[in-house]
Amino acid sequence: MSQTKPYRVSHLDALEAESIFVMREVMAEFERPVLLFSGGKDSIVMLRLAEKAFAPARIPFPVMHIDTGHNFAEVLEYRDRRVASLGLNLVVASVQEAIDTGLVRELPDGTRNRIQTPVLLAAVEKYRFDALFGGARRDEEKARAKERMFSFRDEFGQWDPKNQRPELWALYNGRHHPGESIRVFPLSNWTELDVWHYIAKENIPLPSIYYAHDREVVERNGMFYAVNEFIRLRDGETSEVRRVRYRTVGDASQTAAVLSEADTVEKVIDEVAATRITERGATRGDDKVSEAAMEDRKREGYF
Amino acid sequence: MSQAVLEPDAASSRGMDLLRFATAGSVDDGKSTLIGRLLFDTKTIFEDQLEAVESASASRGDEYTNLALLTDGLRAEREQGITIDVAYRYFATPRRKFIIADTPGHIQYTRNMVTGASTADLALILVDARKGLVEQSRRHAFLTSLLRVPHLVLCVNKMDLVDWSQEVFDRIADEFTSFAAKLDAPDLSIIPISALNGDNIASRSENTPWYEGPSLLHHLEHVHIASDRNLVDVRFPVQYVIRPQSTTVTDYRGYAGQVASGILKPGDDVMVLPSGLTSTISSIETADGPVAEAFPPMSVTVRLADEIDISRGDMICRPHNAPTPAQDVEAMICWMDESAPLRVGGKYSIKHTTRSARAVVRGLQYRLDVNTLHRDEAAGELKLNEIGRVKLRTTVPLLADEYRRNRTTGGFILIDESTNRTVGAGMIIEAR
């Protein structure tokens, strides 16, 4: 059959169409979906996709922020602005509150990534969410390369990599018993660069910390940490003001910045395209602990 | 040897396009090395990943940087040196973005290869030049054709270990070509490579002056996939009905979904299945505004001129080109469940496009030996990783096409109603 027109779409359009399909599928098959929104760029892109999937109707599910208490002020402001402009229902699950009530215990090193998990699971139970949209991408880390678009979790929120459901064509199996849930990753097939290209194409505003700015930082193991209420100078350390941007936005006590002059989305794309270090490797102290750190955290119910 | 069709560079203005391919072959054939090499040569591997692999290789006592460690993500896999599950990898060149479904080669993982092949535009099968075709290569080729992957590439690897012998390569190529001819196989290319040294991967190698085809990467970048899609039969499975409850948007009713095949345009006469009611497309909408046409893989919202009752699981088609709603389905099924086999009389949930129903197994005509293609008509069940021809009866009619004509409306999954696990994948041969 000869076509006069190519009838082709760009790879970004194909990824967008797939993500929208996945979101609509969840809305059609689940009772109580929720979108995990951290104010990070991946969840921001996810929110844009959700807008597109259900337009002209509003996004038909709430968003939830697992608040470690270690936030960048710019990100919290952004979160509240976006939620208000889209008329969304925001659920905040607070790690600090969970520490205060004794649900979780503060770790000796003060980091809160690991103790987020019980807080997340308690919120899922409280609100009876049965599908949780997460912004994780398969290109982020080795264990995530094996993650499904629809990832089944038992009543303890656990991921069993040896017992995953096969996923064929675009036929997603979201069936589960009460108490169990499905984590859904609409950005599975996106890479860091795809996310940035999409942000540029859609002209999506981001929290300012994603772009180059001057900040007081301290260098540790080749990473630059902002000096703030969560990160204090240790003996023998000195801080300096450097021009940096964040590649990921996580727990403010563990997320490092990279030296950068990129103050526009185009310049960020150029840097991302040229960089030789993965985004988690450059910025996340928490993934470096062991070769299987992410796998272990996912088994416990982490995203 | 087929040569990839060169397309005009129209894509550059639209950005890159997307190609999904599945890799099959075993660790011994150098599959992980090949993938590592593709990632390395396209500058996809980052320094911290390479450092991690180098230090892990050293601590294991490997004599060289074991690129397989890049791709074996789970602890059990690293410990056992095998790949358990489908892993997805990503790389891009200025022309194309690639998604690799990296599937293990061993027979106990047939289901993973079937899974990876289900969405692939192209399958890449790897053989060791010293061993030539083995049972596994034939099995991979068969599964590729069963899943109707449109393009197939056979990489004859480790050519450096047979002194770059054209004779060895030709013998393997001829044998594979004649085997593939029996399979109703897709477009086939055969490339002599050394994954370890990078010959004919990113650029053509001087070691194979007798080989006139493209390097692997060049082939992947240029293989013509635009014609693979079915743009003839309009099939739009309704996924979700959008009805805003708001004061600003009133009386809005849109049918959201992803175009499975064909081209839809405003003004087109359409028929809705299973009701058979007809209407006209009044508009095709996206969040970015209305579009003049919709084709695969676009996710859109279709609005019709008439108020008719349509819900999820229905399908919008053209009046003179529509599947016949059918409750009796014959299909090839790959069984994927460890705990219980498929048996005649078994009842399962079935998911086909956006429609869910229940199905009972009415008959098992034969079990197919995936290595010899022998049909065992005396078989009474299908166990994990076995494939057979099955008759099903469904509780509600499916709106199905033959899988060979339409991979989206011809495929289905079976779900165990007590465990909720996905237990089978089916390719429809006939629906009545």
From TrEMBL, chain A:
InterPro entries: PAPS_reduct_dom (IPR002500), Rossmann-like_a/b/a_fold (IPR014729), SO4_adenylTrfase_ssu (IPR011784), Sulfate_adenylyltrnsfr_sub2 (IPR050128). Residues 282-303 are annotated as: Disordered. Residues 33-256 form the Phosphoadenosine phosphosulphate reductase domain. Keywords: ATP-binding, Nucleotide-binding, Nucleotidyltransferase, Transferase. Gene3D superfamilies: HUPs. Signal peptide: none annotated. GO terms for molecular function: nucleotidyltransferase activity. The keyword Nucleotidyltransferase applies. Its EC number is 2.7.7.4. It comes from the Bacteria. Belongs to the PAPS reductase family. CysD subfamily. This is Sulfate adenylyltransferase subunit 2. The lineage of its organism: Bacteria, Bacillati, Actinomycetota, Actinomycetes, Micromonosporales.
TrEMBL record, chain B:
GTP binds at residues 25-32, 102-106, 157-160. InterPro entries: CysN_GTP-bd, CysN_II, CysN_NoDQ_III, G_TR_CS, GTP-eEF1A_C, P-loop_NTPase, Small_GTP-bd, SO4_adenylTrfase_lsu. CDD domains: CysN_ATPS, CysN_NodQ_II, CysN_NoDQ_III. Gene3D superfamilies: P-loop containing nucleotide triphosphate hydrolases, Translation factors. It catalyses: sulfate + ATP + H(+) = adenosine 5'-phosphosulfate + diphosphate. Keywords: ATP-binding, GTP-binding, Nucleotide-binding, Nucleotidyltransferase, Transferase. GO terms for biological process: hydrogen sulfide biosynthetic process; sulfate assimilation. Residues 16-229 form the Tr-type G domain. It holds the Pfam family GTP_EFTU. With CysD forms the ATP sulfurylase (ATPS) that catalyzes the adenylation of sulfate producing adenosine 5'-phosphosulfate (APS) and diphosphate, the first enzymatic step in sulfur assimilation pathway. APS synthesis involves the formation of a high-energy phosphoric-sulfuric acid anhydride bond driven by GTP hydrolysis by CysN coupled to ATP hydrolysis by CysD. Heterodimer composed of CysD, the smaller subunit, and CysN. This is Sulfate adenylyltransferase subunit 1. It comes from Actinoplanes lobatus.
